[in-house]
Amino acid sequence: MPKLTFPRMGESWRTFKMLLEDLGNEVIVPPRPSKRTLDLGVRYSPEFACFPLKILMGTYLEAVEMGADTIITTGGVGPCRAGEYAVLHHRIMKDLGHDIKLVVFEPPRIYPFNFIKNVWTLNRARLSVKNIIAHIKRAWRKLQALDNTEKLSHVVRPRELKRGSTSRIYSKVIEWIDQAQTAEQIAEAEMAALEALRSVPQDPDRDVLKVGIVGEIYVLLEPASNLEIEETMGHLGIEVERSMFLTGWTRDNTWNETVEGMTVKEAALPYLPELVGGHGRDSIGNTILYAKRGFDGIVQLAPFTCIPEIVARTILPRVSRDYDIPVLTFFLDEQTGKAGMTTRLEAFADLMRRKKHMRKTINTLTG
Amino acid sequence: MALKVGIPSALMYYAYYPMWKTFFNELGIEVVNSGRTTKNILDNGIREALADACVPIKLFFGHAVELKNKVDYIFIPRTVCLNGKTVYCPKFLGLPDMVRYSVENLPPVIDVRIDTREGRFSLFKAYLQIGKLFGAEITKITRAYLKAKSALGRFNRLLRKGWSPAEAISYLYNSKKSFARHGEYNLKFAVIGYPYAVNDSFISVNLLDKLRRMGVKVLTMENIHPLLLLLQRNCSLPKRLFWTFSDTALKAAHYLFRQGRVDGVLHLTAFGCGPDSLLNKFIELEAKKHCNIPFMTLMIDEHTGEAGMTTRLEAFVDMVRRRKEVYSCRS
Q1: Around Cβ A203, how many Cβ atoms within 10 Å?
Q2: A321: closest chain B residue by CA
Q3: Does A225 share its domain with A360?
């Protein structure tokens, strides 16, 4: 029986593992990206490839060591480089002498046949279509539960009384959701997890800054690639709202209901009317929406040499001036150090805090 | 006084300048280009553009700054797709916006979107839009468009003869001086790379001329007929590269390696070029299969020095030459 593996992106692997096992496959979960993963990835990837490509390369090689022989990944139609990842990874692995099978999911709207074929290959247990849909629905529910828990942890962490208590609880409750199998169990585990997070001792009067995180999806979702920036910011007393989750929960449920009544795309249009691939336009649109919602600042995360984010970054200073919102950009690669990043974040937090207080003082004086 | 439209001499200039110039001239508009790259232009570009952008983009910013105070409009079309299949690098797609929001006091930007995937006449429609901007009649625009197309055809025919874009442009618009070369060449190299990097003699540190002086005949990817490239299909990849220039470059590399008529292949790439990071690996993997043709990658950025480049080229040329002599002695 083929042993499947797939790229890691935050905690979402728990869902994919469950789904693939339900379909009757043997799954090998790659380890969390570590120093060794990066070393492997950097050694065999092109030097100027973007950071996610290198991490994935390392992840795949580690998974192959663990016995995996089939990789499930996504494709794309450009113009972002991510669409060519699978092709390049396959070539490099072949060059290294690993005979690996790749199952590449292309956008189903453009390649419906490819999608059906891939699902059928993965369906080892030969389940009926109805059953597959039920399994996918359940997996989706689990993904939502994981995302909701993570979102709440971002709100609780800056207010915690004892530093590190949220992270400790979070790593515990994630396991509860992981254990849940049926839809009811998942809902129950989610309730319990959210309750446990809310009961972390908090300081209600703390002066908490609100910062939106925008940027490229992989470095946003995988904490190992962004050096746990959300946790670092939480400890600095910053409440983080990330613009991207795998379930897209944020976009579907909040944007259209907010007072702005604007989608990300509409917000970005005056600045960047063209889809530049990746999440370049989303970065600009989300920055504008966060500014309208009165956030204190924006952090943009992008892999080094990421083309769409470079386009966005070139335009963002203007957005920042027009909407009076500070933007801090991190270009991440294997050389990025945590201490440097923390220093920059501390300075950024100080600036935002001073700006906020100044605004408050002016308001009391004039109002 | 006639209106002046500025066309920065960077990026797409090397592939479409004759078409644009003829089109604007036919409408009675004067075209100003920013001339050859100088140290000053590069410095301006580095100052205006984001540090993480690649050199060609920085150069484009520099050329745009150079034109800023000289023209009434600046022409930066948003070229999305010109062949109905492949698009351009995301930086090209966002180019007008990037320039508009980072260079201060810029004249109005003409940023017509050109995407031939939208329908059969979308290219014409894009030019119609430009013409209407200047209040020209449809018949006049149509005539200008057709003349522009034939100018592009003439330009491309000159390129196939082995001329560089700069030579072809100069032949078409300045003097009818022929650039046919009769020097003594005993080696033939192919330089693969994007036209805006290979043909910009400042940023490529005079690569092509240096090679010629060493007695090497140089072939660039514009000199290869597009039909020959089309025959390469997808270069045995399951998916073609998305970007037009990269796709052409990969096909050119495959064609040259399979044909085996060149003595060496050089790949010129810019530091931090996104598509090239993949393209270079694909070419490298292909080069591994053809060990009779030496292959070298040259990387340029804004700090590339004359001496370093010369040393590497001399070493490579010497190696290839010696190898060739050894093989001819053996046989």
Answers
A1: 12
A2: B101
A3: yes
The number of beta carbons lying within 10 Å of the beta carbon of residue A342 is 16
- Are B49 and B61 in contact by the 8 Å Cβ rule? The answer is yes
The domain containing residue A10 runs over which residues?
3-127
Distance from CA of B302 to the nearest CA of A (A): 16
What SS3 class is residue B202? coil
Interchain pair B271, A275: CB under 8 A: no
Q: Report if residue A137 sits inside a domain.
A: no
What is the total count of domains within chain B? 2
Task: Examine the domain organization and report whether A253 and A115 are in the same domain.
Answer: no
Out of B94, B242, B273, whose CB is closest to A274? B94
Residue A253 scores a pLDDT above 90: no
Task: Mark whether A78 and A218 lie in a shared domain.
Answer: no
Of A80, A317, A331, the CB nearest to B52: A331
Number of domains composing chain A = 2
Neighbours of B213 (CB within 10 A): 11
Q: Would you call B147 an interface residue with chain A, using a CB distance cutoff of 8 Å?
A: no
CATH assignment of the domain containing A262: 3.40.50.11900
CB contact under 8 A, B239 and A83: yes
**What pLDDT does B144 receive?**
95
ipTM of the complex: 0.90
Mind listing the pLDDT tens digit for each residue in B15-69? 999 999 999 999 999 999 999 999 999 999 999 998 889 999 999 999 999 999 9
The two tokens of residue B322 are 């010696």
Q: Which of A51, A84, A327 is the mutation pick for testing B, counting most B CBs within 10 A? A: A84
Domain span at B116: 4-173
Note the pLDDT tens digit of each residue in B128-155: 999 999 998 999 999 999 999 999 999 9
Within 10 angstroms of residue B326's Cβ, the number of other Cβ atoms is 10
Q: Report pLDDT digits (tens) over A55-89.
A: 999 999 999 999 999 999 988 887 888 888 999 99
pLDDT of residue A311: 93
Q: Tell me if B295 sits within 8 A of B287, measured CB to CB.
A: yes
The identity of residue A162, as a single letter, is K
The answer to whether residues B154 and B195 belong to one domain is no
Instruction: Categorize the per-residue pLDDT at B180 as very low, low, confident or very high, splitting at 50, 70 and 90.
Output: low
DSSP conformation class of B220: E
Across the interface, whether the CB atoms of A315 and B276 are under 8 A apart is answered no
Shared domain check, B291 and B313:
yes
Residue B180 lies in a domain: no
Clarify whether residues B221 and B312 are in a common domain: yes
Q: Is the CB of residue B131 less than 8 Å from the CB of residue B27?
A: yes
The residue among A329, A299, A326, A324 whose CA lies nearest residue A311 is A329
